[in-house]
Amino acid sequence: MQTLPREFTRREACVNGTTLSYLIGGEGAPLVLLHGWPQTALAWRHVLAPLAGLGFTVVAPDLRGLGESARAESGYDKDTQADDLCGLLKALRLDQAVRLVGHDIGGMVAFACARRYPETVERLVLAELAVPGFGLEQAMDVAHGGRWHFGLFMTPQVPELLVAGHEEEFFRWWFAHLAGRPDAIAPADVAAVSRSYSGFASLRSGFEHYRTLLADGQVNRTWYEDGGRLTMPVLTIGGGLGAGTRLADGLRPAVPGVTTAVLPGVGHFVAEEDPGQFLRILAPFLIGTVHNRPERE
């Protein structure tokens, strides 16, 4: 079940013109976890307590418009959401030396945050995504083996009309399709996600995260073409049955020192499918015992 560890609480904050709900627990340097789609902050439920136990104040927000955060009409581009996160951390007085972990759509927001606020982000982890401008467009290209869902999800209103009333059936198929094993995500957890995303307004908020992706990519590429590079330590994590090393391969021009890890037997939902294996890779990087080294070509 998607239950909260006892040392964590749920709070909310009004930042950047919206209201964000977030989970917080632990004491120490700030560690932020940004979930993907179709998920909420509870996607991190298996790793919250272990990460807090490493000596971090762990903050896991529901992204704009998702979970228990307010259903926003706009602002789903990744730069605005980076400002959401910056506002939240400033409100919590946790905006220094941040370790930032992002999965899927949350990884796109994390990349934007590291690009916009490099003085704030000390270490960056990106898991199971393609970054707009650095591989995402190729992942969208259905004619050359790209995934079909991007074009559908980016179309206004159509995916809402198709999924509304069939949320649990759709998400049951979605998790089984992208996980390393069809039963990797428990039925009760799929049902909880389905309730969170149910109804036209909630579905719209979810799909709006996709409808900005081409513009997000243009922003990232302009930054890169103007000489932008990420210089903080960056780790990418891919499922062996998911993205593998493709994320790092796409990012390398903008992140020359990127390192990568692949979790064998794991699909897209790395922190839920195999939290033990995920933590064994993540923890040493976060606490600084594993340093960024350029990969061998």
Describe this structure in words.
Pfam families: Abhydrolase_1 (PF00561). The structure is a single chain. Helix 2 packs across helix 3 and helix 7 packs across helix 8 (187-196). The protein has a single domain (9-287), classed as Rossmann fold (3-Layer(aba) Sandwich), CATH 3.40.50.1820. It has 13 helices and 8 strands. With 297 residues, the chain is α/β, with parallel strands linked by helices. The longest helix has 14 residues, at 78-91. It starts with 8 loop residues before the first strand and ends in a 10-residue tail after the last helix. Strands 1-2-4-3-5-6-7-8 form an 8-stranded mixed β-sheet, with helices on both faces.
From the structure above, extract its key features.
single chain, eight-stranded mixed β-sheet, disordered C terminus, alpha/beta, 8 strands, 297 residues, 39% helix, Rossmann fold, globular, AB_hydrolase_fold
CATH architecture: 3-Layer(aba) Sandwich
Number of strands: 8
Oligomeric state of the chains?
Answer: single chain
What is the radius of gyration? 18 Å
Distance between the termini: 43 Å
Question: How would you sum up the global shape?
Answer: globular
Protein name: Alpha/beta hydrolase
Pfam families: Abhydrolase_1 (PF00561)
Keywords: Hydrolase
Organism: Amycolatopsis ultiminotia
Please specify the SSE layout and strand pairing.
Elements: E1 9-15, E2 18-25, E3 29-34, H1 48-52, E4 56-61, H2 78-91, E5 98-103, H3 105-116, E6 121-127, H4 136-140, H5 149-153, H6 158-163, H7 167-178, H8 187-196, H9 200-211, H10 213-225, E7 234-239, H11 246-251, E8 259-263, H12 270-273, H13 275-287
Parallel strand pairs: 3-4, 3-5, 5-6, 6-7, 7-8
Antiparallel strand pairs: 1-2, 2-4
Helix pairs in contact: 2-3, 7-8
